[in-house]
Specification:
Number of strands: 2
Shape: flat
Structural class: mainly alpha
Oligomer: single chain
Largest sheet: 2 strands, antiparallel
Distance between the termini: 24 Å
Number of helices: 14
């Protein structure tokens, strides 16, 4: 079997499993693999500075804007917020593709050096020259902070966090495509559970009287409960994965670097602690993306439903007092704060319900969780071939800094 080591390593990175790769090879191409993440940070920093500049205005100015061109201002803020989430990811992916297409080493190094220079020097200076950041913030502190961020980024890429987060981003895009299935299968039944809570005045009064900090403390507590539940559930699933095997020549590896496994004596090797942790993180992130997507869907539903069915007088009656204009993460919304807070609370509660359903309900498990397990099983089958091919390798070949790439 002629298995390409670089293609095999890149395949595992692409699937969010860098810990399967030999530890001496995990740092191969580290600078190249760090550059897309650095581009992501550059754009995120720039767009966030612009968003904060737009929102950092006195309350009287904000009220005047809301009265004069409220819809336009809110749409502008929402568009910039959307850009903060989407643009850095897209441009980072384009940079990764560019570095794969460019074949000349000098050109690649020039691109990477320019990106590092922009992050360390051009961006901090440009933000101050354009007024996005005040000169009261010392420039040398910003440069030092960016230097530390660069070192942390490269360390995370070295230990494989970049591969896992890149895989999580791809998974997030796939889950966006599945929102229709989430809505049609999970949302109707859930609404039967939480709809009555939406019309409970006591819930509105309790949530409305929470300070923003305390509301997010409650949200964080519920999220922590969900994370502990997922971790315990995934621990049991990984134990089951240990005994899973694949027959030689199985079709699950067709189209991968491991589709020709003839001549190899395969056997299941025990997962190391780092590999178990890697698989747990992959499954955890995949589940978390599904839960967050479902929670956002529920939040949007209750906001729209509340606007349609509840008049301002009814909201005041439910909340026990007149509610102020709503905001979410600093972004002003054209609805009351009581409706926003209740929708946030019900969305987080719905996420917990959905997480429990995917683990315990056979129908939800078959639709939302078992496909993730099948994906991991394919990776484990490839791992057996990978280890069988290099079982006797004690030293990884010498690789240059840019020898390999993560697609």
């Amino acid at each position: 079997m002629d298995l390409d080591r670089r293609a095999a390593d890149a395949w595992f990175r692409r699937r969010g499993l860098p810990m399967v790769i030999h530890r001496r090879r995990r740092g191969a191409g580290m600078l190249r693999r760090s550059t897309p993440g650095l581009v992501f940070l550059c754009l995120l920093d720039l767009l966030l500075a612009a968003l904060l500049k737009l929102l950092d205005v006195p309350e009287d100015v904000l009220a005047a804007r809301m009265r004069g061109s409220g819809v336009g201002y809110v749409l502008g803020v929402l568009a910039l917020t959307f850009a903060v989430v989407v643009v850095p990811v897209i441009v980072g992916r384009l940079m990764a593709k560019l570095l794969r297409v460019v074949s000349r080493t000098r050109v690649r190094l020039a691109i990477m050096a320019a990106t590092i220079g922009f992050w360390l020097f051009v961006l901090p200076l440009g933000e101050r020259l354009t007024g996005l950041v005040s000169w009261d913030d010392p420039l040398w502190v910003a440069v030092l902070t960016n230097l530390v961020a660069l070192a942390v980024l490269m360390l995370l890429v070295r230990i494989g966090v970049g591969s896992i987060l890149t895989w999580a981003a791809r998974s997030a895009v796939a889950q966006v495509r599945a929102i229709g299935m989430l809505a049609s299968r999970a949302l109707p039944l859930l609404l039967l559970v939480v709809m009555f809570s939406f019309f409970t005045a006591e819930l509105w009064q309790a949530v409305e009287r929470l300070t923003p900090g305390r509301l997010w403390l409650v949200v964080g507590f519920l999220v922590l409960i969900g994370a502990v539940f997922l971790a315990s559930m995934l621990s049991d699933e990984i134990k089951e994965l240990k005994s899973w095997t694949v027959e030689p020549g199985a079709t699950v590896l067709r189209g991968t670097p491991f589709d020709d496994d003839t001549g190899l004596e395969q056997r299941r090797r025990a997962l190391t602690k780092t590999e178990r942790l890697n698989i747990a993180l992959v499954l955890f992130f995949a589940q978390a993306v599904q839960i967050v997507a479902f929670g956002v869907l529920v939040f949007a539903f209750f906001v729209v439903f509340g606007v349609l069915i509840l008049s301002p007088e009814v909201v005041t009656e439910f909340a026990g007092r007149e509610s102020a204009p709503g905001t979410l993460l600093g972004v002003p919304l054209p609805v009351s704060s009581a409706l926003v807070n209740v929708s946030v609370f019900l969305a987080v509660f719905s996420g917990l319900y959905f997480a429990a359903s995917t683990a315990t309900d056979a129908r939800y498990r078959r639709s939302f969780f078992e496909p993730l397990l099948e994906d991991v099983k394919i990776s484990l089958a490839a791992r057996d071939i990978y280890l069988a091919h290099w079982a006797d390798v004690r030293r990884a070949e010498v690789v240059t800094l840019e020898a390999e790439d993560i697609p």
